[in-house]
Amino acid sequence: MKSMTTAPLDLYFHLSILDFALVEPRIRSPYAAFCVLAVFVTLLFLSGALSRRKLSKPNEEIDETGNLGKYRNLRVLKNQHETAAILSNLVDKDGAGAWPPKANHDSWPAALKPYKDIYLQCVPLLPAADPSTDDDVNQQRRGKYRSLMRKLLHERINVAEVEKIMKAVEAGNWNSCPRDVYNAVYCCIAVCRHAYRWGTIPVVKVAQLEKIVEFPHALNVPWPYLQRSFGVEADSGNNTANVLHNFDEKGDRVYKINVGMSDVITSSEDTFFRMFYDLEVLAFPIYYDMVQANICFEKGDKEMCLRYLESITFRVRHLLMIFYQNLTESRVSHSIWLSYIQGFQGWGVGRFIDGEYVKYDGLSGNHVLFFQALDAFLGMDRYLSDQNMDRYIPINQRELCISLKKNCFRNKLDGNQSVAIGEEIGKIVNHLKIFRAAHRARVMPYLEQPAPERLTMTAGKSVLETPDTKDPRAALKVLDDMLIVRLQQTI
Predict the structure, then answer these.
(1) What region, left, alpha or beta, does residue 415 occupy, with left being phi > 0 and alpha being psi -120 to 50 degrees?
(2) For 204, left (φ over 0), alpha (ψ -120 to 50), or beta?
(3) Can you count the helices (H) and strands (E) in the chain?
(4) pTM for this one?
(5) Cis omega before residue 100 (within 30°)?
(6) Which of 44, 326, 414, 426 has the fewest CB atoms lying closer than 10 Å?
(7) pLDDT score for 486
(8) What is the DSSP track for 270-283?
(9) How confident is the model at residue 225, as a pLDDT?
């Protein structure tokens, strides 16, 4: 992918974020619009002030195919630096030799192949073109879907053989299921569990009110093995399993949700999830540059450290374009996203563990590795609690962020060369701050869309509405407040 020249990129970047912020229905008065414009001009001024030095391109074009050399270099550096070793481990283990992770959805052991066939056979029953507000109708739909999946799993899955493979992998025998295949299986069983949990899309109230779901034996047996392998604890899926692993080696998304629905629904779904995959494609060179910047700073080579920081600044700008260009009404429909895209990734049920009811949530944008890693590199405290990190973020991703935070050098800057380094870090922070301000303006209209078939919820926070909630928009205040707090913490 060829990079744009710096000047057109500057113009497009600033026009994009202005359009991103001035979106209806958040701006409801001339005064409000004036305030947003004032904030934008201020941010633009700060961006200019931080850009006294010309923004440098990285040494090579932004090209995801160039990562092979970076993988090799990390294997050399792993004995020299902790973060290099962790990133290399993430690539070689969780990623099956690449990042984003490889997922082989075709060459599966015979005992595991039926899972994919069953998902694809059942999925046309999942979405409803005309969602109902009638609980009985919705329960009938859900019962039909769950009954078919249970029947097919019982008939086609040899659970003993599946567990045999899972045990072999857990014991370190990857010959029985290579890592790229294991990633794809993880995805398939995760999306089967999410599909069974809801039983119909859009998500409906009667499903949201469930507290415990009895999953088929064939979905329960392999799940603990898969979760232990990635070091996560939740009954629900996660961004790695449900999103990143859902792209095959050709870059095609395998397990779709809204099969047979209208073009606007299917194209919105594809665009939304591809954003998060493409984000990690562009993120890996940034992770590599973070490692190199840390190594150079620790060696006292501040000139090279600055060059890697300039590369990070350049790449972050390109990466954020993924959101500016795609999270728009024309690419991801406001009226479609809430009902047909977001809901499937939610969870909101649990089980009793040692006599205590434990509820799990679904996927969240806060689970995305790039934003966690960038916050850590910049020395910011993370948003997620320890408990939620353990539940939803694979351990090798957690370890990477811990190491980046530990090796942050922002508070160690001194001397003339450190001034330039501090200014470059300021540019990166500024890009992130602008993005978070704009993102708040853009995401709320998606969440405020009417969905009478369901209670107000987000995938990552589950149901937000209570019987006492008079205005569904009031239930979203907790999310809006969280976005404000995270923006304030971006310094």
Answers:
(1) left
(2) beta
(3) 20, 4
(4) 0.88
(5) yes
(6) 414
(7) 79
(8) HHHHHHHHHHHHHH
(9) 98
